[in-house]
Amino acid sequence: MEYIHKDNQIISELKARVNMCKNELEKLLEELDYLINILHPRIMLLYNNIFGNLENEYQKKQKIAAELNRKIELLSNQLNNGEELTDDKIQFIDSVVRNEIIRNENHRNSFLNNRYFNTRSKIKYEEHTKNEISVIYRKLIKRLHPDINGESQKFIKYWNDIQQAYRNNNLQRMKFLFHLLCPEEKNSENIRINEEKLRNEIRRLELNIVIEQHRMEFMKNKEPYIFQDKLNDKFWVTIRKLKLQKQIFDINRHIRRKYYEYQHPQDN
């Protein structure tokens, strides 16, 4: 009887540790949601109100400079190969550069749309992996969908995260959400098996806690979060405006020089 009591006590302690880990993870996810959906827009609104015009002008000039640099590079290649620069060739180079810019912009937008939950490049998932994602998704839907369980707090907190992970075929994120939100349906009659399951779940949860903590710290140390306190510092705002104005002045000078090179490629 003493052994049974001790075993039951161990199981109870492990279950309590599981619940503690899940509570800690939920707090981390709440903070992550706050950073992404509340604090990020708030900081960006204030930042754009102060620096938006300067940032937009600088970004436009960067694109113009990049386009000119690429055109001059292609024109120089033609000249180095001893080819004559006809109007048709110049128009062809202009077309090539425009298409390159469009492809790069599309690639950039695709990356930005997935920067929070897809930190790796998308790959073609094998069929069994897609099936695994679908199975996990259906179980999560069954667990959380308001038509089945009403609009619970868990539905409100995690629904968008689940949909995002599913759309992006993010198996790792789907598994993480499943283990957080869908407890083991039944226990084994063997207390040792139950104990091992609980210990494995604790290890998995603790690993996810570390991952989410690192994700949080990484985000907080990047723009725009590093601007949160500085935006109320008038001295910092003035210095940053001057820096942006200097960057715009320098890139305008660069564009004028490159535009001359583009119009007179034989002089280079």
Walk me through the structure.
Helix 1 runs antiparallel to helix 2, helix 3 runs parallel beside helix 6 and helix 5 packs antiparallel against helix 6. About 4% of the residues have low confidence. 80% of the residues lie in helices and 0% in strands. The chain has 268 residues and is mainly alpha-helical. The protein is built from eight helices and no strands. The protein has one domain. The longest helix is centred in the first third of the chain and has 79 residues. It is elongated and about 90 Å long.
Number of helices: 8
Class from secondary-structure proportions: mainly alpha
Q: Could you tell me the strand content as a percent range?
A: under 5%
Task: List the secondary-structure elements in sequence, H or E.
Answer: HHHHHHHH
Describe the global form. elongated
Q: Gap between N and C termini, in Å?
A: 93 Å
Q: What would you report as the Rg, rounded to the nearest angstrom? A: 28 Å
Oligomer: single chain
Keywords:
single chain, 268 residues, mainly alpha, 8 helices, 80% helix, 0% strand
Briefly characterize the structure.
The chain is mainly alpha-helical. It contains eight helices and no strands.
List the helices and strands and how they pair.
Layout: H1 2-80, H2 87-113, H3 127-144, H4 146-149, H5 153-167, H6 171-181, H7 191-220, H8 234-263
